[in-house]
Design goal:
487 residues, alpha+beta, Cytochrome p450, four-stranded mixed beta sheet, three-stranded antiparallel beta sheet, 20 helices, 13 strands, binds protoporphyrin IX containing FE
Length: 487
């Protein structure tokens, strides 16, 4: 039901704003400590470009590498022992919790990303089983290869031929990863990376639904968005509409597949899950969770990495040299330097900069921090990638060599590098993501020289579930001379 009369809406809004102002001032702004004051007044922004940079500064200076922001009821840690404690040792005490699932519930339903307990365990088991299959891996590889050869390379090439052609690489990577994850999850091709750079209604609705869901977390109290949802006004009205669009699309794909029945020879995730259930809601939820998990993360990793590569031509030369001397195409896992570059890129620019859980019972972290029941507890991969205590005095430098021992890739414990999370709920798409990222990096660097249009000294991030460069990553591309000579 929607309230249409503008005067009634106005009265309700005025009453609500008085109510929430009272709640805000009585429950939150009572802390006058230096950190809370800086947070409330945003005075941190005088010295730091991004909130995550300020948190990094605070965490670096904390003897325990854990801090508590009183006004947010949020304990934030960059202590790897505490990260291991919450993600593995005491996993059951730190679920995603009701506040998180309420925020994303309308969009993600009961998909794997948004549930705890038995429902999560069941979906995880099923997804692990399917994703572990050889046929699924080769299907993923095929989808990625097709998207690179048929769309990414032709698109970038067409820009290299334009005089002063400026390409926003972040936008290109978002289109690329949306096509890939849709084909992989649904078997549907939105063709976002076509040379005409089309506007996809599905991609737009999906983006809007993720953005508006994330914005719920920023309201002073969950009551604000919950009441707006009941009244069906403002951002909640738009959220409802965008979710409806995504749902209509998902339901149509599921309906079509059901019609095909057992004759279907599709390799995508949806078809795999349909073998075990026909429940359209369950199928919709799990597939939407995968879309969210696998879309922006990959694009974000690529954007951060290409920004770093633009400042480190020596690393580009080394990637090209390894590919030239290394095994023939298709054996990505044997390119150890490339793997090190990708890990190093995400150390400095993790796509998910922080991730929160909610404490169930009073507890104490290994670093001595007391965690009260109901506290939001956040581990912070962005800050962790910048900790001298973990990576040494050169922690701010982009040095892929730190991941190599005698030329062979060596992986740090995931609790020091929780970019894909760690412990029992570690990312299920890690291998697929690595294949995607490495394939794109190699294909682009082998064919093109890429330079930033304007030097970005320190990236600024836009608010959202994943890290996004504000203003994108505008570049100029040119086809490499030695490649042109060969063709
Ligand atoms: C660079 C790319 C990626 C990064 C950095 C990344 C990172 C993460 C992180 C931090 C989580 C934990 C989120 C949470 O519990 O709140 C996660 C979970 C997950 N990821 Fe990824 N991810 C990436 C790509 C992918 C891709 C391509 C897929 C799908 C093919 C995927 C599927 C999933 C799923 C299904 C989960 C939920 C696991 C669970 O709750 O048990 N991810 N990922």
């Amino acid at each position: 039901m929607a309230i249409e009369d503008p005067s009634i809406i106005m009265v309700i809004l005025v009453l609500l704003s008085i109510f929430f102002t009272l709640i805000y001032f009585t429950t939150r702004v009572h802390c006058t400590c230096e950190i809370c004051h800086a947070y409330i007044t945003s005075s941190w922004s005088i010295q730091f470009d991004n909130l995550c940079d300020w948190y990094t500064h605070l965490l670096k200076n904390s003897p325990t590498k854990t801090i508590h922001i009183h006004v947010l009821h949020n304990t934030i840690t960059s202590n790897h022992q505490s990260v291991e404690y919450m993600l593995k040792t005491q996993f059951e005490n730190y679920p995603k919790g009701k506040p998180f699932s309420a925020i994303l519930g309308d969009f993600l339903g009961n998909g794997i990303f948004n549930v705890d307990g038995d429902s999560w365990r069941f979906q995880r088991k099923m997804a692990c089983l399917e994703l572990g299959k050889m046929s699924m891996r080769s299907h993923a590889l095929e989808v990625v290869k097709h998207e690179i050869d048929r769309r990414l390379i032709p698109l970038v090439s067409s820009f290299s031929q334009k005089q002063n052609g400026v390409l926003d690489l972040q936008d290109v990577f978002r289109r690329f990863s949306f096509d890939v994850i849709c084909k992989f999850s649904f078997g549907y091709d939105p063709n976002c990376l076509d040379k005409s750079l089309p506007v996809s209604e599905l991609a737009m609705s999906f983006d809007l639904a993720s953005k508006l869901s994330a914005q719920r977390a920023m309201t002073p109290s969950p009551l604000v968005w919950k009441i707006k949802r009941i009244l069906n006004i403002g951002s909640e009205k738009r959220l409802k509409e965008s979710i409806k669009m995504v749902n209509t699309f998902a339901q149509e794909v599921i309906r079509q597949r059901n019609k095909l029945g057992s004759c279907s020879t599709h390799e995508d995730l949806l078809s795999r899950f349909m073998a075990s259930t026909k429940d359209p809601n369950y199928l919709r939820d799990i597939v939407i969770s995968f879309l969210l998990a696998g879309r922006d993360t990959v694009a974000s990793a690529l954007t951060g990495l290409f920004w770093l590569l633009a400042q480190h031509p020596v690393v580009i030369t080394a990637i090209r040299a390894e590919a030239l001397m290394g095994p023939p195409n298709g054996k990505l896992h044997e390119l150890h330097y490339l793997q090190a570059v990708v890990y190093e890129g995400m150390r400095l620019f993790p796509p998910i900069q922080f991730n929160s859980k909610f404490c169930q019972k009073d507890d104490t972290f290994p670093d001595g921090t007391f965690i009260k029941k109901g506290t939001r507890v956040t581990y912070h991969p962005y800050a962790m990638g910048r900790m001298e205590t973990i990576w040494g005095p050169d922690c701010l430098s982009f040095k892929p060599e730190r991941w190599l021992k005698d030329g062979v890739f060596y992986q740090e414990t995931p609790f020091k590098y929780p970019v894909f999370q760690a412990g029992h709920r570690m990312c299920l798409g890690k291998e697929m993501a690595l294949v995607e990222i490495k394939s794109v990096v190699l294909s682009l660097l082998q064919r093109f020289d890429i330079e930033l249009v304007v030097p970005i000294l320190t990236p600024r991030f836009s608010p959202g579930l994943t890290a996004n460069f504000t203003g994108g990553l505008p570049v100029r591309v040119s086809e490499r001379r030695d490649r042109r000579d060969k063709t």
